[in-house]
Amino acid sequence: MSDQDYDRDNEHLDWLTDDEPDAQQDDTSDSEEHRSDGEKVNSLVPASDMLPERIYLLPIHNRPFFPAQVQPLVINRERWEETMRRVGNTPHHTIGVAFVGEQGVESLDHEGFPAIGTAVKVHKLQSEDQQIQFIAQGVKRFKIQRWLSKEPPYLVEVSYPKEPVDAENEETRAYAMAIINGIKELLPINPLYGEELKHYLNRFSPHEPGPLTDFAAAITSAKGPELQDVLATLSVAERMHKVLPLLRKEIDVAQLQSEISEQVNAQMQERQREFFLREQLKVIQRELGISKDDRENDVDTFRNRLESLVVPERVQARIDDELNKLSVLETGSPEYGTTRNYLDWLTSLPWGVTSQDKLDLAHAREVLDRDHDGLKDVKERIIEFLAEGTFKGDVGGSIVLLVGPPGVGKTSIGRSIAQALGREFYRFSVGGMRDEAEIKGHRRTYVGAMPGKLVQAFKEVEVENPVIMLDEIDKLGQSFQGDPASALLEVLDPEQNVDFLDHYLDVRMDLSKVLFICTANTLDSIPGPLLDRMEQIRLSGYIAEEKLQIAKHHLWPKLLKRDNLPKKRINLTDAALKQVIDGYAREAGVRQLEKQLHRIVRKAAVRLLEEQLETVKISVKNLEEFLGAPLFRKEKVLKGEGVVTGLAWTSMGGATLPIEAGKVHALDRGFKLTGKLGDVMKESANIAYSYTLGHLQEYGADADFFDSAFVHLHVPEGATPKDGPSAGVTMTTALLSLAKHQAIDRPLAMTGELTLTGQVLPVGGIREKIIAARRSDIFEVILPEANKRDYEELPDYLKEGMTVHFANRYRDVANVVFT
């Protein structure tokens, strides 16, 4: 559309700007009016003080329009522009307004229009953007007699029904007075109605009950259908019966709103009054010397904290300087808040406060035995550590590293050490830590700066010689924000931590009295310089007997106590507990075992409540009702030509590792590896293949076997990554068994690395591997000769019933396997 076309269209809407129109008409309004279908009908030519017999309709959705109302209406220009243009071309400028409720514009139909509506005069029509706005003056009710156009613009033939009323009737006058009194009562309660009510009261009198009733209904907040019912009631007496309850309801709502507002204002005034009185009291007390201001209170608080502390001179000098600065700063300044926080940290630390160590070995043994079953070698190592501290006078400055798979009790061991010593215990995890500021604190110049974790630990434990546990130290991160592992060097090095410097405090602290205990699952990811400063104590996995004792003495009682269940209500037999360990929780630690026991407790609690039982017994027969089918079955050791059981170490503990060698075909020579092996394990396989190829005749095999054999070496569970330098002996034995056509006819496991010359090299994780062999009911094992000392240091209960062969060269292995 061009600009000229747009201006020309707007001319049709600029037909009414004053309250009294000039009755401008186009050629269609002089003699005739057109229907939407083009058929001519008789023209609407009423006198200026009369209402037309045919009017255009305008639907409204929110609430009906009453004859006594005068208010602006806003309508959609695109849909109703033609209707308003035609109204403008009439001499009377009257349009019918009808309430259609929630009907949408698209679904609006002529049948949705009510029979009764309100004829309104249109004043001051304006058009802006997509809207048309005008002031509507309600004139009179109309009733639709006949539809002349059922599509927009809607055109209807109407009549104006009489509204029967007896103004002199006593009941009518009483209702009229009640409505007037209600309007007057509403006026002071709700100021929103003030101007409108005053305007009305100036125009109408109590002797006009019809308009009075309509106006009273219009000013209520009743819903649309209720108001339409009032509009459709022609009898003024009946209409007054309906309007008066609506008006009373509006008065009640307005009174409630007024009461709520008064209560809120009263509360606000009371709080303001209290605030001013308190401020006046502070000024009066300050003038009389009765009280001090906030700044003096802060200074006195910090000085009082220092009275019971033994603060080093260099720290005391810094505190004095900061107190002098605080005494001259304004309390509202940002620097005052920064200085106050700094002094709060400095004076909250336990300068010179230590706890007395209990270096009693008998007490330490009692605590360790009470809290832990098994771990005999670990307990002995801790007792040795404490005995050494008895002669030194303290155990401070030491760094203990507890290494073992998850769930073996590393964190609880650290807590038990603190209890045995009678020291405070503080633990925080450094796993995933990437910012060295968490160790050494932020600079004070940064917004939101805080001291490091160590300073926070001192503030919480309130002594200088606590036991601090650094959990998951093998999972330290590294990023552009720094290297926390390097920051820990200053913390853990006994030569450096005497003068530890936190960036936030910026004063030297003595960490030499702290006993640091670190935990890790593996040593591979711990930096060498950091590992060099620690004393390692290994916690291997538990065998079934140890798990049984741990479950009976610790896990099961703890779960019953936590759920407040008497021990006699749930009876778990020892045989069922063994089945839980063997069939559902074979991991190195006891975390999975605790989860399965908790599952039993939950299901037993449900039975106690639903079946009204006194006791629930869990035995081997009904265990599957609580835990389902076992996750692990009794595994048979794989047997056959080319099948050998190896022993492996993982971060989760020891494990058996079967290795299979098979001849695929005899068409061509070749060697294939599968099982998701790492680079080190692939090298071991190639060395084993080369060594076997070169020594077939020496071990009684066909020297030409591999010349035409395509051999496939597989390590089962191909989805699990495997790597490590301890499978060379096992792979060589599998290949030699295949070449000799001789299977291993007994449960036998082995571990060790092999060189090209047949040397058997030592490996790690001997304890974990022996535990894994016992867990699989393998009691004959081949170990490297160099690991003989590691085996001899194992506790007797692990060596009981074991037959161990030590090999220096592969010839020793072959003699054990194939004789």
UniProtKB/TrEMBL annotation:
Binding, ATP: G404, P405, P406, G407, V408, G409, K410, T411
Compositional bias (Basic and acidic residues): 1-15, 31-40
Ranges where the Lon proteolytic domain occurs: 638-819
Keywords: ATP-binding, Cytoplasm, Hydrolase, Nucleotide-binding, Protease, Serine protease, Stress response
Composition bias type Acidic residues, residue spans: 16-30
Statement: the UniProt record of this protein carries the keyword Isomerase: no
Pfam families with a match to the protein in the record: AAA, Lon_C, Lon_lid, LON_substr_bdg
PROSITE patterns the record matches: LON_N, LON_PROTEOLYTIC, LON_SER
Active site: S726, K769
Induction (record text): By heat shock.
Any one Gene Ontology molecular-function term assigned to this protein's record: serine-type endopeptidase activity
Family: Belongs to the peptidase S16 family.
Function: ATP-dependent serine protease that mediates the selective degradation of mutant and abnormal proteins as well as certain short-lived regulatory proteins. Required for cellular homeostasis and for survival from DNA damage and developmental changes induced by stress. Degrades polypeptides processively to yield small peptide fragments that are 5 to 10 amino acids long. Binds to DNA in a double-stranded, site-specific manner.
Subunit architecture: Homohexamer. Organized in a ring with a central cavity.
Designated name of the protein: Lon protease
